[in-house]
Design brief:
It is a single chain. The chain folds into two domains: 12-148, no CATH class; 164-213. Helix content is 42%, strand content 7%. The protein has helices at residues 45-60, 83-89, 91-95, 97-106, 114-127, 133-148, 176-188, 203-213; strands at residues 12-14, 67-69, 164-168, 194-198. Strands 1-2 form a two-stranded antiparallel ribbon. Strand 3, helix 7 (176-188) and strand 4 form a beta-alpha-beta unit. 16% of the residues are buried. InterPro entries: STL-like (IPR005049).
């Protein structure tokens, strides 16, 4: 994908288990994702839309919603910015987002409907000091307002979490089969949180897999 309107620009579909930040500019939410448009108001403004995208993506996989990046259709003319001021306002993005993603990646809920899952997520975020109580109260009013308007939340789709999927590969010629292994792991990660690939790997191949999937998989020799 290129970030311009060139002829070769294409869309990019983000895998379900990958968190990719998107902001509030030139972003479109489809009707099934309308509930995800609320911005958390108890965090700095330059943090709010990025963290909103992370909160939303934590829920997206449950009703089978997907995130797509497309070539831009607008041209932005930016006002003058105080770069140091922007950096200070974005401090939480640099110091807290890593642990936030770790938390969201392992988060789950027993609730079987989207609004209850979203509410539980925001409560859990409040309890971990990512947002404040007023943010949770605003979310509850937002979810209730959507119901009052007659909005229909998307239904949850079957999804497995914390289930190890084990696969045996009896060949590992490098690099072709390594690419196949990585693609299969990527595909399986859309439905299983933990993926274990077993194969006769040498040290170079194992290092290749570990580097590519260090955070999400456990390659085994």
């Amino acid at each position: 994908m290129t970030f311009d309107n060139s002829e070769g620009a294409t869309n990019v579909l983000v895998p379900k288990h990958v968190y990719s930040p998107y902001n509030a500019q030139a972003s479109i939410h489809t009707k099934p994702a309308l509930w995800a448009t609320l911005l958390p108001t108890t965090v700095p403004g330059r943090v709010s839309d990025i963290w909103r995208s992370y909160f939303a993506q934590c829920i997206f996989a449950d009703p089978n919603l997907r995130l797509v990046f497309a070539p831009p259709k607008i041209e932005q003319i930016r006002n003058d910015h105080n770069i140091l001021g922007d950096f200070t306002a974005e401090n939480d993005l640099y110091t807290k987002s890593g642990k936030l993603i770790d938390f969201l990646s392992s988060w789950d809920s027993e609730h079987l409907h989207v609004p209850q899952r979203v509410e539980q997520l925001w409560i859990d975020l409040y309890e971990r000091s990512y947002i404040e109580l007023d943010g949770v109260l605003a979310l509850q009013k937002w979810l209730e307002a959507l119901i009052t308007m007659g909005y229909r939340y998307p239904e949850l789709k079957p999804r497995f979490r914390n289930v190890p999927l084990m696969g045996q590969f009896n060949f590992a010629d490098f690099p072709n089969s390594m690419t196949q292994i990585m693609m299969l792991i990527q595909k399986m990660r859309e439905r299983f949180q933990t993926t274990i690939a077993a194969a006769p790997l040498n040290e170079t191949q194992l290092a290749y897999l570990e580097t590519s999937y260090r955070r999400h998989t456990k390659p085994r020799i």
